Amino acid sequence: MKRILLIAFVVVLICAGGLFGFALYNANSLIAAYRPELEKSASDALGSAISVGEITTSIFPDTKFAIKDIKVAADTNNPLKLDNVELKIRLWPLLSGRLEIVKLSIIKPVITLLKSSQGVAVQGLPKKSPASGEREKAAPAEQPRKTATTAAVTLSLKDFEISDGFVEIKD
Q: Which residues pair with 119 in a beta bridge?
């Protein structure tokens, strides 16, 4: 009887491992398939064009997303470049609609700060003029309809790291 239970346990363990591997393989495929939509959503949210290279995910030992070759450009000639961004997240809160980022690592960013009489701006990010800010205050804000794409996500960030970066300041 013990031998049958042991064999059944091993079979269940092998099946669970196969399903886990299949789910992980499909996660990377889904992310690759929806990459253009993710880029568009991020571009719309930031107000600047965003392009990304490869996006990969891993679940074991930690749930991580790695995004390579990120370029953020309000002006396509001078983008903000991030070589690699890694998000280490908690899986269970994500399944319930909360994004808990344990660690956000930005590796090898190339950031150019533009200094002017109006202040300092980050090259690649949109510049907000005082006139546009006044218009936003004057016009009543529309309440967006909550849909699957506009529903609020609770976000929590525990640790933030930037390594091997390059910052240039231009007058």
A: 116
